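Contributing new records

If you add data, match the layout below exactly. Sequence lines come first and carry their own label; structure lines follow with theirs. Keep one chain per record. Anything else will be rejected by the validation script.
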Amino acid sequence: MSTGAAQADSATNGLARRPFAWTFTTPLYVGSSLNPINSSIIATALVPIAAELHVSVGATAVLVSSLYLASAVAQPTAGKLAEVLGPRRIFLSGVVLVLLGGLVGGLGQNLAMLTVARVLVGIGTSAAFPCAMVLIRRRAEEAGLDAPPGGVLGGIAIAGMATAAVGPPIGGLLVGAAGWRWAFLINIPATAIAMAMALRWLPKDPVPDRGHSGFRKVADRIDLPGILGFAGSMTALVIFLTSLPHVEWIALAVFALAAVPTVMWELRKTAPFFDFRGLAANGALARTYLRQALTLLGVYSVMYGMTQWMEAAHGFSTVGAGLLLLPMGAVSALLSRPLARRNLVRGPLIASAVTMLLGSVGIMLLTSHSPAIAIVLVSLIFGITSASTTVGNQTALYLAAPPDQIGTASGLFRTFGYLGTITSAVIGSIVFRDGVSDHGLHTLGIVLVAAGLAVLLLTVLDRRLMNRDPNRQAGTPDTSQSPKTPHQGESSVSTPTHTTITPERTALLAMDFQNGIVPLAPDADALVERVKGAIADVRAAGGTIGYVRVAFTENDWAAVPETNKAFTAVAAGKMLHHEDTATQIDERIAPEHGDIVVRKIRYGSASTTDLHQQLTDRGIDTLVLAGISTSGVVLSTLMDAADRDYRVYVLSDGIADPDPTTHQVLVDNVFPSRAHVIDTTELRGLLGSA
């Protein structure tokens, strides 16, 4: 027993000292690199594939669009599955699909087989990034980090955008030396490495709760109808976009037919896959998605559009074109980590917009007679764009996304990026529709200047970027390896600050505000008035109100065992009968129709009631606690709710205890390790910002 305890203490201390050791981060980096490399490595293989399979080069574009389509749908789906079923399980499942895709593509004999392979690779690689973000966020919270782990996010940035830029050079070397099949077969050794690392070093997921297992319950938790509707809508939208400039009216009609009922379903769903209301309320997250889409439109236009122009108009070989873009990936890799370590957001995003504008102007000045050094210079500028946009937007995502939805939010972040990437391919096909030429390249540059201006406006006019949480502001030291050291009097574990509360998923619990208990609280009338105001605020925002009272029947008294020190006295004295006036809720905050009301017979609100089930049925995952007393119902309910994985807020001016010293110790030294301690004014602000 002592040995096991010592091992547990050692593991806990190790997590506190170094929460993001290389054994934890390396498999995440390897897995996160698979999608961007596969996205870009195919660029230099399209012409050889077309030649060997006797199809047009234009026909091979399906190999690009199929992966992007699969990824655009699969990324948020994988994130949702990671939140519900466990990130390690989904990560490993994705690796297996990539391995299968590599085999199918490497052995493929026709374009159809290669397309299937790219879809498998797209779905499989889509699991890594959202799973990594879920694992990172959970590890940060376990370690008590109150700032983004910048060093780790920088590593993910390198594995993401930077490896995408390295894809064309790698593809050029592979295709030139070993043939186009290695654009697929490269996944076999890569997945073997990722699988071994994940099995060895990633923490195992908790055993699924039996009450939440089974296909129907899992389908409901992940919102399977919402996922299917999103998949259908996204598929039709991508088909429509890739058909441009020819208008594919059938695809547009299918998009409308799929999107409208999906949106209606998601708006009614209490825990939707695509939270339209949450996204509309969270402007910072919506702007992050849009910035990412517009900037990647520029970066991938360089990767694909300039690659085509260099080969077809300038006369460079496949290998040469890939090598000329190599500086783009190198600069991205060199800049991503040091930028991310400082947890900067606004600065990198402004740099991203400005360099995108400069690079776009550079594209407008290039001609088929320009020296190679001019092309390299444009590549270098977009390398800065690549690094700064990935770092800035990824950190903005980490700060803006609700922690319990970080997987889905990360997937949607990538989905918007794919929409930008797909749009870049559409623009390329339009500007080069009469053949690859200098004129088409210059037109592309004009489009990218407009996109760069939009990104700049989205950044400089975003007030949220100028008013960051002071605990997470630019210049915060890198905390990716060790948590903040508490000062004297601070809690040893801190929890992240959340800028919004989603009212539809929030319940305020007014606990033990009953006639026989309220008078025991110091300054009871003022306390009730503050809680009354908080209840009104939550109601107005569309949240749920729950009432908990302690009261006994004759059978409850008889069932109290002698071992229960606290409640044997209650039973012996026949106190708190459920029909007594003393056990009725204070009329000043009386329940209304539709509220939750439960009667308990112990300290905690859920242990002897069906409160947890009622909250689950309503899709509630966030609790705001108010109650009497701090050392009784509030403490017990908080501990139980934290163990059930609720996000918990405690109203510091909505709770009270007959012993002021005990109250203060709990509020200052115990509650912050498991909940967010706010007051009723802060609650009103959080609800208002939502």
